[in-house]
C-alpha cells in the first residue's frame, strides 16, 4: 500500500513538472523567406525582389510564441551572407496580410564596379529572424544616353506630336526601348504613366512620337525616356494643353417654349420625332428637361458660360435622368437662372447650355408661362 502511495506521488510530480514545462520559454520560430531575385543592376544600385511567408509552426505553443511577421526587407553588403548586424538593411514593410507575399526594393548609393551580396530577411513578434539564400551582383559604369524632347506640334483636341532627339551619341550602350511618357496629373511622368513607344536604338538621332487619348483643355506633362542596361533616363519636362475642338453650332440664344422638343445639334425646335434631344416641360408634367433619343445631360452649376471649357463638359457625369426645372417646386429645382448644363446630343456631339431666364410654372392648361430662355454652344465630334 505504501509503495502504491509513493508511486502515485511520483507520477503526480512528473505530471506537475511536465505541466510547468508548457509555460517555459521556447525559441522563437523564424519566418520563412525565399531567395532574392536581382531584376536590374544600374550604375550605383539595383532593383531586387523577394518573397516572405508566415512562420511554419511546429506546435501551438511555438506558433503563439513566434507570432506575426513584424518586419521584412533586404540586407546587403560587400561580404557574403550579410546580416542585419554587419550589413545594410533595406526595410520594405511591417505587415504581411496574405502569403506568399512578394515585394520589391530599390537599392541605391552603391559604389561603381563593385560586387554586392544581398538576401531577404524577416522578423516576427517572437524575435525570430530569418534570411533567404544569398544572391550577388556587380554594379557597372554605364554611359547614360542623353535624350531630349523637342517642340510639341500638331496639337488637336485629343492628340499631339513631339520630337525626340539623342545627342552626344550613346557610346557602347544599347537602348532596349525609348519614347515619350505623359500625364495630366504627374508633373514628372514616368513609364508607369501613359506612354508612346518609338522603338529600340537605331542609327538615327531624331524621331517623332504622337501622344493620343488626350482631353481638350487639360494641361499635360511630357518627358522623353530611354531604357538601357544601366536603367532609365528621362529628358526635361514640357507642358502643353490640347485645344478645344471646332464648333458645330456657335453660341446661340433662343427660347424653349412650353411642351416643345428641341434639337441641340442645331439649337432649333423640331417636329420630326427622333431628331430631338429633349422636350422642355411637356403637357401635364412638371417643368424640366426630359432627355430624348439617348441624349444625356448634367447640371454643372451657376457658372459663367464662356468660362466653361470643353473638358468641363466631357468630364461631367452625363445621364438620361429628368432634370427638375420647376420654380414652384423650389427646393428640388436644379435649373435656376445662371445655371450651366453640359450635354451630349443624340448625334454624339458635346455642348453646353446656360439658363438665361425661366418663365413661371403654368398653373393650369389655360394659363400662360412655362417658357425658358437659353444659350447653347455645340462642339464638333
Automatic annotation (TrEMBL):
PROSITE patterns: PROKAR_LIPOPROTEIN. The keyword Coiled coil does not apply. InterPro entries: FN3_sf (IPR036116), Ig-like_fold (IPR013783). Keywords: Signal. Transmembrane segments: none annotated. Residues 1-19 form the signal peptide. It comes from the Bacteria. The keyword Signal applies. This is Fibronectin type-III domain-containing protein. It comes from Dyadobacter frigoris.
